[in-house]
Amino acid sequence: MPSSKASADTALPLTLELEDFKGDFSFDALFGGLVDELLPDFKEEESDSAEGGDSVPNGNLRSVLGAGTGGVPLFPAVDELLALFKQSCKELVDLRSQIDTRLQNVKQEVIAQDTKHQRTLGEIEKGVDGLFDSFARLDTRISSVGQTAAKIGDHLQSAESQREMASQTIELIKYLMEFNSTPGDLMELSPLFSDDGRVAEAASIAQKLRSFAEEDMGRQGVSSAVGAANASRGLEVAVANLQEYCNELENRLLARFDAASQRRELSTMSECAKILSQFNRGTSAMQHYVASRPMFIDVEVMNEDIQVVLGDQGLQSSTTQIARGLSTLYKGMADTVRKEAATITAVFPSPNDVMSILVQRVLEQRVTAILDKLLVKPSLVNLHPSEEDGLLLYLRILAVTYDKTEELAKELQAVGCGDLDVEGLTESLFTAHKDEYAEYEQASLKQLYQIKVEELRAEALQQQPEMTGTISRAKAAALTISPQQQIAVTVVTEFVRWNEEAISRCTLLSSQPFTLAANVRLVFTCLLDQVSQYLTEGLERARESLNEAAAMRDRFVIGTSVSRRVAAAAATQAEAAAAAGETSFKAFMIAVQRCANSIAILQQYFSNTISRLLLPVEGAHAAACEEMGTAISNVEGAAHKGLLQCIDTVMSEVERLLSTEQKTTDYKSPDDGVAPDHRPTNSCTRVVAYLSRVLEVAFTALEGLNKQSFLTELGNRLHKGLLNHWQKFAFSPSGGLRLKRDITEYGEFVRSFNAPSIDEKFELLGILANVFIVAPESLASLFEGTPSIRKDAMRFIQLRDDYKTAKIASMLNSIMAES
């Protein structure tokens, strides 16, 4: 559309409109639209130039435009274009002004609309707030109306309940009047009470009538003192008739229940059980059902129970057979109860109560009948060793039956038994036996010990060797202990095995830690007594052998003024006594070794088995340790006495060998000027050989402190005996050298004792022997070097053969005066 403001001087139309700038605006398109009509020729030339490849170089446009032939412009439309461009600029400015004006108007309208919107929005918010207030008032009103309606509903429901109760009460009163008509007359009752199809309803009404009548009688009984006894008398007739009717109805239902039970009609049984549950909570029905089970009324079943457990041997059956029989029997009982549980669950409304009655009946009737047959208590009065099987068999059967019955109780508990305390009921079955269990266990262990002792004595008498000669049979028995009389570790092991079996029964039968600890202590005390007595008596028998050997030595001691034949006979008997002493010594050492091994077994048993059972109870473990210490101390006391006798036996033989083998010329040879003999004397050789031979068993049998104490005491006694022996002889210098050789031999032997105090004493003896070797004038220096031997040296110096001739006495006096 041409602008209205176009210049009159130009004929060029303008087409600039606002629509040209809307949408996808292109400046090139706008510009082309303005100049295309004015430059058609130029466009053709331009296209031709482009096809010919001629072009105006950059920077030469002005010269081209300005050049021409005869002054004619090369681009004559330039003025028209300039005018067009100027006019376009004006129109563009006008268009911008129009747009600005429109924008301003639109802005004013937007502001006005926004103000109107804000005002409308505020009014809407006020309306919404008012609407919320209205809803809140409405909600409050609705709540109030709802509460009122609920109260009205409660009143209506209460009124309906009262109406129904009143109606039922009227019906009950009508039925009550029927029962209150004539005592014992039930023929005039409503058809309800005789219709088998309405038994459940009749039972419910009858129970309500009984409850009402009995309650009313109770109230009238309280107020009868104020003159209200007449009403009471009327209801007594109703109560009696109702009781009679309920009993009849209950019996009728029970009969129907039994008939259905025989036919296995579970639905009918369930219906009857539900109705019977209204009579004393169904107790009669539950008890009737349980009592009618074949396992409780069939005599053959009970006889089979005994046959399964005991078999054909009766009470002579082994515990293994009894255990196997009980397992079979109890498994059958559990299976039967499990089958009954399925029926009970399907029939009774309270199956847990029925299961409780059933399980209780199983334990109290069937299990008790078996226990009464198996557990027959033997008498504890005047027990005889031949009755071994009585006590021990009773205890073993008690343990087996208790264990198997506990397993049955757990299985029944798993099947289900309601609120019944199966564990407590099972315990009560054994209460009479468990109360006296500890006494029977002690009596059994004592009886086993007596039987074992008698058995060992009988075997000893049978195998006692026949002895002839000067030693009688009794003396030979004392000197030569048979294997049955000797201490045997296997016997102590058998004691421990008995005790271990008894402890296992204690653990099984003692449920509480305190009771268990008390019973374990009693049983373990029996073992301590048995081991202590057995070992002590064994040591005493070995000591008797040592005593007899000592008596034989004393009997054949003779004087010096006897004939050679008598002396030879006495020497032969002394040799026999010495052999008997050596045999007794070895036997006692073996006994001590076996005692030590037995005590070790006892202590190991206490540590592994007894301790853990006593530790939970305060003081029990310490008391048992003290008792065990006392028992071991008794054995050690007997062993100590015997070891001292062993030392006496050894030293007696050493003294005999020294007295018989030691010659006067051993330490004072007539040919003293000859080269000295560096061999030990014959007596020394015999003594060392004897000690080596006899102590070989001691080194093996004794251990630890016992060995150290024994060898130390023997070393002291040997040292003292040698000193006393040597004081009987006179010593020349060469005799002193030989004495020193004997002392060296003794010292090397006692070094095997591993007793430093004994080694020191024999070393001092070697030094002491120098008093016979050194010259008289060197004695003083000997004392100075070893002052500890002064006392013994003063005695030994007097044994020098030159003691008087060399006037050593006066020399010693001067030495003592100077010191």
TrEMBL record:
Record-level GO BP terms: exocytosis; Golgi to plasma membrane transport
Pfam families cross-referenced by the UniProt entry: Sec10_HB (PF07393), Sec10_N (PF20667)
Similarity section: Belongs to the SEC10 family.
GO cellular component: exocyst
Domain Exocyst complex component Sec10-like alpha-helical bundle: 201-811
Record-given protein name: Exocyst complex component 5
Every Exocyst complex component Sec10 N-terminal domain range: 79-195
Record has Transport as a keyword: yes
